[in-house]
Automatic annotation (TrEMBL):
Parts of the chain that traverse the membrane: none
SUPFAM superfamilies: Winged helix' DNA-binding domain
Originating species: Sphingomonas changbaiensis NBRC 104936
Protein's recorded name: Putative MarR family transcriptional regulator
Keywords: DNA-binding, Transcription, Transcription regulation
One term of GO molecular function: DNA-binding transcription factor activity
Domain HTH marR-type: 1-138
Annotated coiled-coil segments of the chain: none
Pfam family, one: MarR_2
Amino acid sequence: MLRLDEFLPYQLSVTSNAVSSAIARTYEVLFGLRVPEWRLIAVLAEQDGVTQQALVARTEMDKMTVSRAAQALVTRGLVTRVPHGSDKRSHALALSDDGRALYAQIAPKALELEQTLLEELGTREVAQLKLTLAKLKSASHALR
């Protein structure tokens, strides 16, 4: 018999929602960002000139969520949109100077939140958790 509280996909979803919700409140209060906007900023901080399609793949968010987040960031002047290659319809996104400055403020806070979240776990447990999550992600892609 399926018991929802013992069903791993449900546990992962609930845990993810709880963690995201706690972090989202911090990003909203301190920086005026929603989680999708923060994720795009974080990806763009690692690699400039990323298309929205590539952001969808990297963040595993749906197209509409990425599009709305990108538009909000462009409107705020945190991200610039430039033509991508010879395709006039495709654009690449990059952090503006203001976006980079905001990232420089957010990144330490993100690391602090992660540290607080993981305080109850030992170094080995954190490493094992990351390995297990990577395996589950890979297995989930195989199910698609």
